[in-house]
Design brief:
Blueprint: H1 5-26, H2 32-48, H3 54-78, H4 82-86, H5 95-105, H6 107-118, E1 125-126, E2 130-131, E3 134-138, E4 144-147, E5 151-152, E6 163-165
Antiparallel strand pairs: 1-6, 2-5, 3-4, 3-6
Length: 170
């Protein structure tokens, strides 16, 4: 039985995320530029092993950058915890994914990203894209969509709208 294409994309997203997060955690000098380089390297790796096409890997790298940047921005600007950005307790996530997020969420690491991230708005989320764990909010009706692992963003189950954001209120 062939894998669902969106399950394949979600697994590639998680692979790219984990690879970039581990690389950043192990680096002596951490920066937003390094994180982007590590995500780009992870993108090349998933293409080389044939997990996804180059086109899909390009999209996924954009989504990983959006999600990691959004998490770092949220925590540095609001001073809130990772669970506030996710919109639920981290106990609902896989241990490895939480471990990597928490390593990146360390306040000293988040502060390194603050200057660059503050100047960049978080791109919106759209139906059909892949997102990592967390809660998306429908731009039209405010319905919450909870993702406990990487997955495809569906239309809003309440109003069928296709645009979403994360809650970044301080």
């Amino acid at each position: 039985m062939k894998d669902d294409p969106f399950d394949v994309l979600a697994r590639a997203y998680e692979t790219m995320f984990e690879s970039a997060a581990k690389g950043l955690h192990n680096a002596e000098q951490k920066s937003a530029d390094l994180l982007h380089e590590l995500i780009d390297k992870a993108k090349e790796e998933v293409v080389e092993v044939g997990e996804v096409s180059r086109e899909d890997a390009e999209k996924l790298s954009t989504y990983v950058k959006r999600d990691l940047g959004g998490a770092a921005r949220h925590m540095s600007v609001s001073g809130k915890e990772l669970k506030d950005w996710l919109g639920f307790e981290t106990t609902l996530l896989e241990v490895e994914f939480v471990d990597q997020l928490l390593k990146l969420a360390d306040p000293t690491r988040v502060e390194l990203f603050k200057l660059k991230l503050d100047a960049q708005p978080t791109p919106p989320y759209h139906t059909g894209e892949i997102t990592g764990p967390g809660t998306l909010i429908c731009d039209k009706c405010g319905e919450n969509l909870h993702f406990y692992r990487a997955g495809k963003i569906p239309p809003c189950p309440k109003c069928h709208a296709t645009n979403f954001h994360r809650n970044f209120e301080a």
